[in-house]
Predict the 3D structure of the following.
Amino acid sequence: MTNGVKTPPGFEEWLQSFKIPEEGFLKENVDKFTRFQEVMTTDAEPQVGQTPKETIWTKNKASLYHYAPAKKKTNQVPILFVYALINKAYILDLYPGNSLIEYLTDQGHDVYLLDWGVAGYEDRHMKLDDYILDYLPHAAKKVLRHSGAKELTLYGYCMGGTMTAIFAALYAKLLPIRNVVLMTSPIDFSEAGLYTKWLNKETFQLDKLVDVLGNIPFEMIDYGNKLLSPISNSMGTYINLASRIDNDQAVLNWKLMQTWLNDGVPFPGESYRQWIRDFYQDNKLINDELTVRGQDVRLQHITANLLNICAMRDNIVMPHQIQALNEKVSSKNKTLHEVPTGHVSVCTGRYAQKEIYPYVSEWLHNNSK
Amino acid sequence: MANQTSFDAFSVWKDLYNQTESAFRDSIQSTLEQPAFAESLGNIQKQYLQYQGVVNGMTESYLKTLNIPTRDEIASLAKLVINTESKIIDLEDQLEHIGDRSENNAKEIKLLKSSVGKLDKKLDTIIELLSKQPNETIQKATVVNAATPQKTATKTQSTTTVKPSSQAKK
């Protein structure tokens, strides 16, 4: 205690745990600060999405990519990745050695990705119905035609998984869908954590938001996500970088993640209105009340083999929001795979590389014979 | 002081953060869960949208006064381009469909040609044999019939029944 000011308990012991500075300590700290400042300001952005690919179809802003298999194709059932309308799809092909798509192509899978692109103001009237009925069936048919395969696997991530589930339910008898793989895809919105509280009909200005802004800016969605855990998402990110600033691999991973997190896309207005109202506010999908352009969506119509991956540390999509699907579908072969990761680390990072990628590849291999 | 470490400014920062985060996390989290927080978010949103609505209206009237296309007008032009692209995609699909069909037709015609060719050769053989030795030819034709598919066999048989009778008349 000095000058009558109380220090927090344990503070003085902690202060005394530091030695009297030795020779060179100043240079070491200055070097770290310099490196930190370089990473934050002048370092080049890492190059993302490097797995070789060709565009086989485009429509409006959407592109369908085919990833060239690095080795001989050993699995005859092609995989069509369906990404969300939030953020960019290259999280699935982040960086060599840290890419789900690269891993699957290396394992002999034939991989396609439907990237929705960046919606413009002219796309503000696009509804989820349009994406599900005008884009997905076309993309699936293109994949079948391009690959020459008789069946295909649909692979949805996050909101893309919800769209995939709806599409698989509507097209169960119209398209040869062999497998459906979903990763952290919300299905039951009855209790969506803080989102349920913030997006309630009484206080959330949904209609006015869409009417005034057209498309919902990425920054607005990003603030919402960051508000779920404000301290760790603001300060914590930089503390993590600072504490591992002398580890080049850790710095690269940090930069990759920040590149992706800050590289968002606007959410098409009408799709946003539908997403919030029909899903977060009215929870129509799981209750068999959702209609897509007049067609009833019944999840029990899904008969394809199902792999549903649930991240147990996810604070954006709660595990129980995901798990509900397995009880709803009619698939005879259905697996709920729970992993100890977060919403993004389910498809990137060390655990994903070591555990999740091989698991998914093997499951696909076993169900593509 | 057995666990003394060299001074590292970043470690100090991290320690401070960890202590602060653990102290404030729960109280922040409970604040975020309060209905009052959602209500205040809604109010901020309402005010922002009101302001944005006014800005949008003013910008639009300003652009119209200057005879410059507004965002809506440019977007509707873009929409026309998108619609045109959709029509091109539909045409492309139809062409692919027609292409598939004509490819299948070509394959079927090729198959048909080869089976007609085979049939033709067989008929030639039969006619040749019949013209030389009528009785033997009938027997051989029966053997050929047994070895050929149903439709071909029927046609060949009808040919063989006519020829010998006409030759028998001779």
Observations:
- The first helix of chain B runs from residue 9 to 33.
- DSSP finds five helices and no strands in chain B.
